[in-house]
Amino acid sequence: MPVKAVLALGSNLGASEDTLAQAVADLAAHEKIEITRVSPVAITAPVGGPAGQPDYTNMVIEIAVAMRPFMLLEYCQSIEEKHHRTREVRWGPRTLDIDIIDIASLEMDDPDLTLPHPRAAERAFVLEPWARMDPAAELMGSSVRELADVAPDAEGIREFRPAPVVCA
To answer: Which Pfam families does the annotation name (predicted)?
Structure first.
């Protein structure tokens, strides 16, 4: 039985908007994943990591998924690898990052996967696109819209662009 999950996608190396659109298509291509909502694309200042990074291109998607959390994590990581993601510097520049933000309000704390995402409630680059995609969304009982309004990095959102066209 599929459950609702929210994923955050980001990129700041290469053709970022094209990479995000292709990553959404890669997710949609899996037989156990259905894309149900797609946020607009946010252009944002980097948060953390080394100084001098290019701006990020960020978006959030909602999916219906019929796989266990670790299987979804593995699939998301395979898509990152397909797009040449490397993990050399924490919060460093990347071609693609796919974070699992929430899966059916599941709470878990594992070294490989913590749900909900431990920093999502304070990241405007996740919260603002999510709130624009789903104004009624909640994260751990709090309004995503209200969390976005008070997020420390809210001033780092530079602009919004239309959501990518999703082709599986």
So the answer is: HPPK
CA distance 7 to 11: 14
- 118 Cβ contact partners less than 8 Å away, ≥ 6 residues apart: none
Q: How far is 83 from 94, CA to CA, in rounded Å?
A: 10
Q: Which residues contact 51 (CB under 8 A, 6 or more apart)?
A: none
Whole-number Cα distances in Å, 81 to 44, 54, 65, 159, 163 = 23, 21, 21, 28, 23
pLDDT band at 167 (very low <50, low <70, confident <90, very high): low
Which pLDDT band holds residue 10 (cuts at 50, 70, 90)? Answer: very high
Q: Which domains does the chain have, with CATH numbers?
A: 3-161 (3.30.70.560)
Say what the pTM is: 0.93
* Structure token pair of residue 76: 């998301």
Rounded distance, CA 31 to CA 112, Å?
24
Q: Tens digit of pLDDT for each residue in 52-94?
A: 889 999 999 999 999 999 999 999 999 999 987 666 666 668 8
Distances in Å between the Cα of 166 and the Cα atoms of 34, 50, 114, 163 are 11, 32, 28, 9
